[in-house]
Amino acid sequence: MNIQIVIAREEHYKFSQEICDTMYESAIQRGTGIAKRSPDYIVKKMENKDAVIAVADGKFAGFCYIESWSHGKFVANSGLIVHPDYRNHGLAKKIKTRVFEYSQEKYPGAKIFGITTGLAVMKINSDLGYKPVPFSELTDDPTFWKGCSGCNNFDILQRKDYKMCLCTGMLYDPAEKKNEKEEDQYTFNKKVLDRLKAIKQALFLKKDTDE
Length: 211
Hints:
There is one protein chain. By secondary structure, this protein is α+β, with helices and mostly antiparallel strands. The chain has helices spanning 16-30, 39-47, 91-106, 119-128, 142-146, 154-159, 174-210, and strands at 3-7, 51-56, 59-69, 74-82, 111-116, 131-133, 168-172. 46% of the residues lie in helices and 21% in strands. Helix 1 (16-30) packs across helix 2 (39-47). InterPro entries: Acyl_CoA_acyltransferase, GNAT_dom. It holds the Pfam family Acetyltransf_1. This is GNAT family N-acetyltransferase. GO terms for molecular function: acyltransferase activity, transferring groups other than amino-acyl groups.
């Protein structure tokens, strides 16, 4: 099976309706809410190079798009979907990983987040370094939450004053990850220095004893 995961472009516009239909049918099967998207919206994402698509021998296999908020400070990877014919092959994780990496390339320094009810997506996000967070840590841009209006759980979100819903919020903060790496590096260096210090002390002690 020859599957390519690429940045969506003009030649992929023809898949926009199929992408929307697949998203909707998947949500119905899972019994979960979904913010409905139109083919025009999907095409717009492709035009702006804000989407990743998986194509297998010229057929639509999977898709995910990027949304940016608060002047690029927050980025969401949304609409992850795999066509039924290509499921159970790890394709969702490959698409998610590619759009995650692409988001960091296109929006360096942005916090990357998502809201989902899918356990599989939560697992993928967790593997990529996302952490569950309350909605208060996500963007406060009203345009983002307006995008949830097409979900059949939107009334719950409204009743909870946009602070809680059936979805779980997950966030990847590159600044936090950088600090973690620096802390890990400091811990490593300290251990190395302590080891070298112990070796030197042992050598000096041996030298004094020999003398």
